[in-house]
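Students often ask why we bother predicting the structure of a whole assembly rather than each chain alone. The short answer is interfaces. A chain on its own may look different once its partners are present, and contacts between molecules only exist in the joint model. In this exercise we take two input lines together and write out one structure for the complete complex. Read the inputs first and try to guess which parts will touch.
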Amino acid sequence: MNPRRLLALAAAVFLSGTAAAFADASPGAPAPDFTLPDTHGQPRSLSGFEGRVVVLEWINPDCPFVKKHYRSGNMQKLQEQFTARGVVWLAVCSSAPGKQGHYPAAEWNTLLEETGSRATALLLDPDGTVGLAYGAKTTPHLFVIQADGRIAYNGAIDDKPSVNPDDIPGARPHLAEALEAVLAGEPVPVARTTPYGCSVKY
Amino acid sequence: MPILALAMLAGNARAAPVRDGPVQAELISEVAAVAPGKPFTVAFRMTLDESWHAYWTNPGDSGLAPSLDWTLPDGFTAGDLQHPPPTAIPTPPFMTYGHEGEVLFLVTLTPPSALEADSVTLHAEADWLVCRDFCLPGSARLDLTLPVGPAPAPPHPLHAAAIRQARENLPRAPADWRIHAEASARRRRRLLAQPLGHSPEPVSSAAFFPDSPDVILHAAPQSFQPAGRGFSLEMEPAGRGDALPERLSGVLVLQGPAGRQAWRVSAPVSKPTPPGIPRTERNAP
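Now the answer. The structure tokens for the assembled complex follow.
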């Protein structure tokens, strides 16, 4: 059994042992493995990216907090900057059918093109299984998984909870700091923050 | 008294409510005139359409509290926005803390000791987020014009009572109660409230709203138990509960025979007593 699978198994045991309404992917804990279809119908597994640094970005394109980071170009810039350095960036949509942000794959592809997304893929999680396994609360909510399959960061994109794009330049970029640290093999300065945004529409 | 007559009594105090989506926003004043050097209270009043909610300072699992950005005449200063006690708004699997219906956020304004003008206009830019099954940000540019007059400033005939009521509802330090915080078995957070002195009215339920979002699991039920003449309230820790917070700080909303009241609480967290260790040994250096 490879290390990623062992970690995923440990994560499953850990998750089933918690009394919480949904799980909580704590920094240092193994990232739960998953397989979800992307918007081209191709199944993507976390274990398929073994040895790579992975970002999970919870997304709902109609949420004002998500719009803040896409209309300003902040999210696309981060995606471009870090995928260029080998990071796998997976946007995940856990909006349930009939809820805000739920779109069929074809519409997603149009949306992604319009917004200029540079994510590696967008994964569809309409029954919310993966969102609940990670404890994804808001859009955006970001997780960094380091190369050994452990959670390195869980939280907000930055430290200015607002819908105002003017707040982005002065904000402390928690996600970018975490990624820089992981890529440099250094400890993440702030591994856990409170994510801000709209609730994930499970 | 007809509204029009009341409005005329209010002199030339002027403010226009602004509607943005499901929210009507307005600045209202407790006084009908501003007296030089005398602090007075205004309220940012949000009236939300049915099924919408705004957020408390700790919004819970998602959301964002409203904010005001003041532009005031020379010499005026504005205090912090005072948020009313929140209500728990469950949206499974999440819990948010916020407000529904008509909400008054109070602010103390202090004018300079000398005012030349006949009237002053207070200007605030309000920003908020409201949600139901989806969220809408909103904003409004609000103005409130008040005449300048001698002290004591007369109460505003339309709004003074509502602002006074909102002030009475604000969380206050509990008089005659001792609040103790500890981490109990399985790292659960516990608040213990015991009355000092005279026998208080019984409290039939309590809910704790922490100031910080990383203290308790917002969506987990809180367990209320009568304890002695007081009560205890147990809560699930946030995350895995490994790190003990130094204090439990927030607002405790109680229900008793006298109705709903809110306490401001900040109690240092004591560690649970390990079983079987005698007190003397535990206290040894």
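Check your guess against this: The radius of gyration of chain B is 22 Å.
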